[in-house]
């Protein structure tokens, strides 16, 4: 991998602005004959350092997210199982009486609704028996019968709702 400062035409260094080679008065070179090898080795070192830097950046780019994940993991490691079970038992002890009270209230409500339903059913039966004996008052009885039937349906719906709520509370109590 080449560094961005490297010339794209090849691996040769750029031309120097200084005169190289023998000086006009001497026939001996000013620079060491191994200078090109030294420059090539320095360039190779720079390339390797650049590759290592890119690799390091890729490796630590996800550091903020990973530190957050590890921090959350440490939170769970700090709480041992005995503490968690103790707190859950305390929570059950606090909630269980309230759930029991709600279940009792729901059962009382169901009993009241069942009594109302039986009273309405007996009224409907009585009205039906009177309606069959008296044909002349059929329209008035039919209106009352329809009203009572609607009232009965509403109470049955309320009974179903309360029984579903009781079942839900019992299932929460069991779990």
Q: What is the level-2 CATH architecture name of one domain?
A: Orthogonal Bundle
Subunit organisation of the chains: single chain
Mean pLDDT, all residues: 79
What would you call the shape?
rod-shaped
Q: Separation of termini? A: 61 Å
For the largest beta-sheet, the strand count, sense and barrel status come to:
none
Number of helices: 4
CATH topology of one domain: Helix Hairpins
List the secondary-structure elements in sequence, H or E: HHHH
Low-confidence stretches: none
Top CATH class of one domain: Mainly Alpha
Roughly what percent helix? over 70%
Estimated share of beta-strand residues: under 5%
Tell how many strands the DSSP assignment holds.
0
Radius of gyration: 46 Å
What structural class results from the helix and strand content? mainly alpha
Main location: nucleus
Keywords: Centromere, Chromosome, Coiled coil, Cytoplasm, Cytoskeleton, Kinetochore, Nucleus
Organism: Sphaerobolus stellatus (strain SS14)
InterPro entries: DASH_Spc19
Question: How are the SSEs placed, and which strands pair?
Answer:
Layout: H1 35-60, H2 63-78, H3 81-133, H4 138-174
Helix pairs in contact: 3-4
Question: TL;DR of this structure?
Answer:
This is DASH complex subunit SPC19. The chain contains four helices and no strands. With 175 residues, it is mostly helical.
Architecture overview:
It is a single chain. Helix 3 runs antiparallel to helix 4 (138-174). The model has no long low-confidence stretch (mean pLDDT 79). The protein is mainly α and 175 residues long. It is rod-shaped, with a radius of gyration of 46 Å. The protein contains four helices and no strands. It has helices at 35-60, 63-78, 81-133, 138-174. Among the domains are: 35-75; 96-174, Helix Hairpins, CATH 1.10.287.
